[in-house]
Amino acid sequence: MTRLSDEQRASLIAGLTTLESRSDLILIDTSAGLTPDVLSFVSAADATIVVATPEPTSIADAYALMKVAVTQARDAGREPPRLLLVVNQARNRAEARRVHARLSMVCDRFLATTLPLLGMVRGRGARAAVRARRPYTIASRGAACSKDVRGAGGRCGGGRTRRGRGTVAKAGLVRRWMGRG
After folding, report:
1. What is the pLDDT of residues 41-99, one digit of tens each?
2. 33 Cβ neighbours under 8 A, 6+ residues apart
């Protein structure tokens, strides 16, 4: 889905419209990068979950996406997107917090926007499931990575979080994606 034709985009919108009327939450996993289709999903979404690893190139790519998305929204007179971070392949919570602190600081300083940490996914336990071509949340239900994904998922939809904050999702993705919301 790196480049959708007008016909493909219309078909996707029709499918999403049907899905949105029957769903509490739609989670769209886009490719990495700054393609027009990725940026159109970001501009339409209630919240954008940016996934970064502790690697410097991943951190730089994550910041680039956030910078372009925020700048485009402001240039168009729209509210900047709501950004949330998931740190993937973290060795531990401390490493995830360091990645978050670094990205949060540059978002605050250069983009004047906040970047809450939605969660982390510890790297161990996922590798064997990837090699076996099975989702690790199924292959290794008790592994830390599986628990981390379920925890972050619970904060995306389905009620309130443990700390009483609301979820990240609202209705209206398709209307916003088509420029009517």
Report:
1. 787 777 888 989 999 999 999 999 999 999 999 999 988 988 999 898 888 889 999 99
2. 2, 61, 65
- How far is Cα 180 from Cα 44, in angstroms, rounded to an integer? 10
Extract long-range pairs of 140-145: CB within 8 Å, 24+ residues apart: 145/121
Q: How far is CA 10 from CA 5, 6, 16, 113, 172, in A?
A: 9, 6, 10, 32, 17
What would the 3-class secondary structure string for the chain be?
A: CCCCCHHHHHHHHHHHHHHHHHCCCCCCCCCCCCCHHHHHHHHHCCCEEEEECCCHHHHHHHHHHHHHHHHHHHHCCCCCCCEEEEEEEECCHHHHHHHHHHHHHHHHHHHCCCCCEEEEEECCCHHHHHHCCCCHHHHCCCCHHHHHHHHHHHHHCCCCCCCCCCCCCCCCHHHHHCCCC
Stated pTM of the model: 0.73
CA distance 35 to 64: 12
Compute CA distances 73 → 2, 11, 70, whole Å.
21, 25, 5
Q: Identify the burial level of 60 via C-beta atoms within 10 angstroms of its C-beta, where 0-12 means exposed, 13-18 middle and 19 or more buried.
A: exposed
